[in-house]
Structures are given as structure tokens and as C-alpha cells.
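Bumping with the actual sequence this time:
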Amino acid sequence: MKKYIYGALALMILPYASCEDWMDTEQQGAIAMENFYSNEDEALQGIYAIYDKLQADDLNMFYYKNNLADDAQGGGGSPSDNAMGRELDEFRFGSSNSILSGVFSHYYQVIYCCNLYLKNFPAETATPNEKQWRGEALALRAQSYLELVTLWGPVPLVIEPLEAGNYNQPVTSEEEIYAQIEADLTEAISVLPVKSAYSAKDKGRVSKGTAQAWLGKAQLYEASPGFLNKTAKYADAANNLKAVISSGEYSLIPDFRQVCRVSSEFGPESVFEVSYTGDKTAHYEACHLVAYCGPRSPWFSNAGTSGLSISGWGFCNPNNSGLFELYRDEGDLIRMEGTVLDEEYFEKFYGVPNCLHAADGSIPFGCDGLIRMKYGAFLSETVDPSDEGWHCIGGTNYRITRYADVLLMAAEAILQSGGNVSEALSYVNQVRSRVNLPALTNLTLDDIKKERRMELAFEFVRYQDLLRWGDAATVLANQGKKVSLGTFENGVEQFLTPDNAGFKSYNRYLPYPETELTVNNLITQHEGY
């Protein structure tokens, strides 16, 4: 389901008023919102509008959770380049960080579109199709609130379109938000079809398995000590995640190195992904990882046989936080090749020595000599690899939930609920078997933490994992305190040492954006910001 082009702009029409007669002329070619949502065709456009919003702000969505985690750092061309991304990596951000304000607004834009649909097509009067689409809207609203509550904590819970004069809303407790998430997903599960029931053109839509996976994830989060610590929820999470596994709708693809490549989009491992296109005629429907997040030129001037672009800006570089060494020390060369390489292994795999060092010995700013291969800047996945005007725009989908993630979440929920350890082991060992690692014979939470890091790096889950386990303060304590300048003096690498870098206790919650506080006096900023 490559990005929809919708007629849903009708939803955004704003009324104008004036004493002049000419200003009262009816606008041609537009439908007033009160006259929209009158039939199934318009109902479907309303659902497409939600998916459209999911694709918006693709760079911020990629940056913010990857930079907050120990997977990646800000990068760029200099200390003044990509300032907002560096603030995230170094935990020096405040309420004015434009990336955070962008993603906060993004989630509420999705929620607004969901609320419009749900108000206009109530379950009591909806047709069978409209009930299914309600399930999609409910699941996508729940997913947005799960992101908001786990990162910002108490936020306004809005479940219907707000009217003029009622826009300012107070924050709602985390417990109430989780309750709404569970209610939305439970209803969605009851009306959504399984993945295989969708036709090829609808393969990117939310399915029953998506909603079950997200419900299990929400309950796992609720149970975790860093969030609500409602340990009874572990058993509920295990049951919902096991329902996805037992459905037979999903399986691991054979080659881990393809899990985030175009070749595996909407494949058997896909539980849900946000869709982009590599079609030049619809390039506004594409994403921009290749240009912004490819290895920095001109240092990276020879990609060898890797297929990577040599004209990237070097944002969101891999952090020197032990991830690469973890793959190496565990003998996990398959996931290493599909995730992150140092220069030595890049030469082994793709034939280019010292690929990030310029002739003068320098390396790019904010680069620790590592290259991200997952969501890599692959020219074959761009709009037009042969045209420099277009090869910076790509069509690679963002994987929001993969089946491997479901297996590992299920194993964790089973283990933490005191369930069948052999069953949990079997799920973890399926993930390990794909990359030719030996089966584990015993299972601890530390084993699962390690497996999740190796399997899901750069896939938007690591930061929330650290928060919910209560590990963020320890793992991220020194993050961003030494940023490579890329230069050497007498053979010694030079570093920038930002003041006040590293995770602080108040970073448990992200700050409410300044743009929200300015217009809503019912929200009080979290302490510390």
C-alpha cells in the first residue's frame, strides 16, 4: 500500500467570514466538513487521511527515538549542523526542540483524523465496511497514544474532535490513557480482518494481528517497572502476543539483512509498517533517509559493493556505545552486516579500506568510525539512482512492528509472568536460529535484553525499552559527553565535550513543547525543564 493520494484535504477546510458579499461566495471544488462523511466512499477517504498523516514528518520520526537511544548520535557536518538532533542525543533538549514539537504534533494530527472518523461513523449505525475501518482508526489512535504516554507521560486524552473554544485540555493520568489504549485495541481486534484477508492493494493496512500485537505491547509496557509496574499485566500481554504467534499469519523471513529493505516490505514478517514510495511521479510520498542519514560525504567517497550512496549528510550516525562490539563478541556476523559495521568489517564485506577516513586522516564530525546498514542509504531503494536530483529520496518503509519483535515481547511477558520458560525459550531461539546462533538452554531477562538490542537496533524501540526496564539512567548516563570532532592532533582524536550532556532523572519524560504551553494554560511543564 504505497502512499495514498487522497481527496481528504476537504477535512482541512477553514471557514472564512466577512461583511463583504464577495467573501461569502461558496468555494468551488471544496466540500464543507459538515457535509463530508456521508457515505462509504467518504468514509474510506477519512481512513486514508489517517494513513496519510502517519507518513508525515518522516525525518523527525526517524531521528527522535534513535537519537535518544544509545543506537545513534546526532552527527552532521559540524557542531552547528543538525543542532536539534544533537540536543536529543546529548540530552540537552528543552521545550523548544523542534524535532520533539514536530513529533508531538504529529501524533495529535493522527489522533484528530481518527477522532473525526470515529465520531462520524459510530459503531451502532456503521456498515460492515465502516466497522472494519473503525477498527483501523481505533488501533491507530491507540498506537499514537502509546507513543505519547510512554514518552511524555500524562498528556491530554482527546477522543473526539474538539470544538472551537474547547481546544485547551488538561493532561490525563497515565493509568487512564493506558485504559483507553486497551479499550480501543480490544474493540479493534473484534472487527479487524486477519492479515491474509486483505487484498494486495490493501496489504499495508492495520490487521487483527497488528491490534493484538499492540495490545500485548501496551500491556507489557504497563507491567514494566519503569512505567506503571502493574505486574499482573504480564500475563495479559503474553496471551495477546501468543495469539499473534498462533494465528499462523506471520513468520521470520530467511535473511535478517533484508528485514528493513524494500525487498521484504509487507512480507511474512511485517506486522505493521509505515509506507513510502520510490515512484518519481509521487516523490512527496517518499522518505529522506538517503540524503540526510547516509554516511557523510566527501569522507565516504567509495561505497565498494555495498550499494550505499556516497552523498549523504551523516545525520543519525551509529553511536560508539558497544552495539558493534556486541555483534562481534557474540559472533553475530549476520546481524552485524545488516545493522552496523566498522571500517575493518566494511572492507571485509565490501572491499573498501578506511571508508570513512579522508586523505588527511580526518573522519566526519559526530562519527565514531561506524556505518549504519539497517535503514542504510541504498541507492537501489531511491526514486532514481542515476539522477542526482532524485537519488536522495527513497521509498523504504519504516517497520513499526516486526514478527521478531512479537516473539521477543512474548518471551519476556511469559518469563516475567512466571509462565512456561520452555515456550519462552522457543520464541527467542527462533530469532537466534535465523542468524545461525546457537540455541539458548536457559533464559533470563538479561538474555532477552541482549537479544532485543541485537535484533531491533535502529527500529524505534530501544529507547522505550531502556525506560521501561528502568535502565535508561545507567545506560545513557554518559551519552553525548564526548562527540568526535573528526580531527586528530599528533595522532590523538579530538572531542567536543558538551555541558550538561547525558541522561538526567527528569529526562524520564520528554518536555511538553513550548508551542503547546503557549496556547494551552492547562498544561504545566514537567519538572526539570
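The C-alpha cells above came from a reply further down the thread. Strands lie at 72-75, 270-274, 315-318, 340-342, 370-372, 398-402, 483-489, 492-496.
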